[in-house]
Amino acid sequence: MPDNRPRVLLAFSPHVRETYLAPQDVQRLDALADWVWFPCEGGGIYDSNTDPDAPAQLAARLSGHDAVVVCYGAPTLTAELLDNAPTLKFIGEMAGDRFASRIDLNAAWARGIRTVDTTNGSSYPVAEWALALILVCLRNGGAHFRRMIAGKTPVDRTLMEGLPGSLWGRRVGLIGCGHMGRRLMKFLRAFETEIWVHDPYLPQELPEALGFLQTSLENVLTCDVVVCLAPHTPKTEGMLGKAELARLRPGSVFVSVSRGKVTDSAALIARLKRGDIIVGLDVFDPEPVPADSEILHLPNVFLSPHIGAYGGPTAQQDFFALMVDELERFFNGHETQFDLTPRAQANRTGADPDYS
Length: 356
Prior knowledge:
By secondary structure, the chain is an alpha/beta fold. The protein is 33% helix and 14% strand. It has two domains: 7-117 and 316-349, Rossmann fold (3-Layer(aba) Sandwich), CATH 3.40.50.720; 123-303, Rossmann fold, CATH 3.40.50.720.
């Protein structure tokens, strides 16, 4: 009787093997497929392994497999490599911030191979931290904390004058609505907020399905709370400059948990010095924040050192858990959820959203 179990190749470094693969998820993969691990070293978060021998070594392993999952250490799956894998139906990437440097996407799509990415494993903790920054800033928590550690422990209520205080029923604007934005929406629903979104890469059906208003960047910037979640691309670098930040209403809150380069740092400092908005930042340009930066001493800003993605000591296991979820869906005849598509590719490269 023929064995119809899928054959899966895992290609990444020993570090990934040791830290990303939780025993319970390995057991799930065991139940689903026959799998082997190809250990490889080289490259980084966004860079594939450039060892000249690595592609040939991987090509020798690819033949006969139905799926391959890559992460740190793997060379790029080029058209030439994919030609050595005529049975390949599924490629998964576990890291790289959805830039897919280890996959030639066009070559994979031309061969009808499903491409998925589970780097959103680190997006969900960021959404939690975004909510925390919103709540802290609505009461100007950074200023209160500075006073207390300076020994000024009685409350100074003037620090909250003109602020909304409560998140309940407020209008919240999201700049970018990827995985972390959609997770943040779930949290915001508990506060019965009105949600406005600017993201030119969203499917037109999504606002109706999730119940938010898709609008312009200019409109989003007029909300009670504005959260920047946009990725750093050639198109978004410096997207929030002097003119954009001037649209923030007095008494509003601005939070950024995306990448520091999306916001013009000098323009943000100048806007903060007007003293009529509260800002919460987990990201800055440059990073780490220079010790002599003015922003460290402004009373109306709460800062954290890019810790939003920290989800605990086993958080890296989320990437593989999500990947096994995708493999289970795919090989059981269901639709995958985290596909790398031309839309995702355009978003991450800053291409024209009219890519169709």
